[in-house]
Amino acid sequence: MKRALIILMVLWGWELRSQDPVEPYLLIAAEHNPGLKSRFNLYLAQLEKIPQVKALPDPQVAFGFFIQPVETRVGPQKASVSLSQSFPWFGTLQSQAVMNSRMAESLLAGFQKEKLKLFREVRLSYNRLYYLNKAIVLTEENLQVLASFKELARVNFESGKTGFVNVLRVEMEEEELKVVLSSLQDRQVAALVEFENLLNTRLPEAVDFPQVLPIHTLDASEQQLFDSLKATNAELQVLEHQALAKGDQLKLAELMAKPSFRVSASYINISKRSDVDISGNGQDAWLFPQVGLNIPLAGKKYQAQQKQAQLERESIQFKIEDQANLFSSQLQHRLKDHADAQRKLTLYERLYDLAERSLSLLQTEFATGKTDFEEVLRMQLKILDYQLQLEKARVEINNSIYKINYLVGK
């Protein structure tokens, strides 16, 4: 039941994107991540406090037995039983319930914040794995191309067209790429461990990656993002609920300074008198009702409670203002990162296209002896670099959007 509740809360307000390859892993994280479960349990625990604070104080029952019976006109008193019930000032119980309900809303907002943070981290980790996987594939492909280049250089050397230095140049580039490949593979292992730790599970199969990472777009203008930041940021939502809870606590402190009531009833067991026959002989006595007041004389105590709640609420409100300014600055930086990544994508798409065309021309010129083998090799390595920069730009665009969405509570 709890598992189903967590999944429902995770999916609440979540727009699924069928083409987003990371979506299945977000669901796994939502189901298994212990941090998310911890936040949700805190919320459920707070909900259990509401019926507790709405209930009246427990009634008090007192029993008495007279060691020396008290003689009365209708007989000696043997024992007594009394029952009393306290009632707080009007509205106190409801105020306690409202305050605890507000605290539960704050914890729910904290759960939503944890969910957004987890999803952001899963997406960033997935993109890191995607880039490393793509870099490994491209590096391996380029090693195969270099192998063919080395064979070509060897054939040209044996035929006397070029010197052996071209073979050595290719071997040098091969050795450098092999070291790069080993480093990428080590980073991939570490990134996979990080990814599985976020999911809190070991994946039975390899992580699934698309051929080309889909690029997301911002669904709001910059001005709309800034305008909605304060109202939708997850951390500010938590603080807003905490401020409201402090307002409820202030009202509760005012009510606690008022008297409470006590209603009681007593029963006295009376034995019959044997020495006289009178009306009501041995008849038990009921004393009902008795009404009392509990008067809070320590006025300074309740005044201090009210002042404390007021100051704490003001502190949270100042913190909201401070955090809003900080998040606004962070949003500006994230938007700059997004614009930079878009420019890089456009640049490297253009450079990659030009490099491929240049390589084709250089290969033709090399075959006719119009250019040096080193130029062909250099251009092939440029193509690898541009391919990697392209993938990095795609990842950076999406990462900037994930960070922007987190700031605006999406």
Give a concise summary.
With 410 residues, the chain is an alpha+beta fold.
Q: Main β-sheet: number of strands, strand sense, barrel status?
A: 4 strands, antiparallel
Task: Indicate the CATH architecture.
Answer: Up-down Bundle
Helix content: 55-70%
Number of strands: 4
CATH fold annotation: Outer membrane efflux proteins (OEP)
Beta-strand content bin: 5-15%
CATH class: Mainly Alpha
Defining key terms:
single chain; 410 residues; alpha+beta; Outer membrane efflux proteins (OEP); 69% helix; 11% strand
Description:
Helices cover 69% and strands 11% of the residues. It is of the alpha+beta class. The protein has a single domain, classed as Outer membrane efflux proteins (OEP) (Up-down Bundle). A four-stranded antiparallel sheet has the order 1-2-3-4, with no helix packed on it. Strand 1 and strand 2 (75-87) form a beta hairpin. It is elongated and about 145 Å long.
Can you lay out the helices and strands and say which pair or pack?
Layout (H helix, E strand, L loop, with lengths): L1 H10 L11 H10 L1 H21 L5 E13 L2 E13 L4 H67 L6 H35 L22 H11 L1 H23 L3 E11 L14 E10 L4 H69 L5 H35 L3
Antiparallel strand pairs: 1-2, 2-3, 3-4
Helix pairs in contact: 2-4, 3-4, 4-5, 4-7, 4-9, 6-8, 7-8, 8-9
